[in-house]
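Handout, tutorial session.
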Amino acid sequence: MRRRPDLPHQPLSAGIATQDPQLRRRLEVEHAAQRLARFLHAAVALMQVLARACGHDHLRGFSRNDLASWHREVADLAGIAWSGSAPDLAAPIRDGSTWTSTSW
């Protein structure tokens, strides 16, 4: 992938799937593999912590019931629980001389 001249701040891609020979030469496969392995091990360790926090003894114990989103639209799209609060239940906010819950 080449940098577009009309987007001067666009980062260069050093992706694995690149067809640009210059970018392919820059890829240090062994170093990239080690970084990917560290990332995957760290991700699994964090998922294990979350599984234990949800009361599971293994990652296989996770289910849709363990998921929630604070963003109502995301929850609706994903078909998971919404963990936000309705505007009338939110912490009150001062709006002129009265308190409302939508002015944060």
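The second record follows below. Compare its token runs with those of the first.
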Amino acid sequence: MPLPISLPACLMDCYKVLYPNLNFSRITFYEGMPAVAGSPKGFTMAPGGPDINIYVREYLPCSKDTFLTIAHELVHAVQIQGMTGGGYIPGSWAPKTYSGTMPKFCCRRRTKS
């Protein structure tokens, strides 16, 4: 079960410089993954309403890997907040986010083994 975490001021200060237009008051950070996430290092979800949830598999606040994982997930938060509906409409961000990955899965050339 994911547990809410508070990022230390040193991390939040860095992220606020990297993402000056991001509304951090809408974001809740969690250690652990929800069942729907599978097994990535990080996962971002906008279940609708004001919340954007960012999950990290392993939270080590002083590690480079944690810093980079959260920074990557914050890119998704920027995408969600910038879309029509701003992430307030459940799933409104999914078609645009996933449309970029569809050609990778659907258009692979098959080679003979």
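Points raised in discussion: Strands lie at 3-5, 27-31, 42-48, 51-56.
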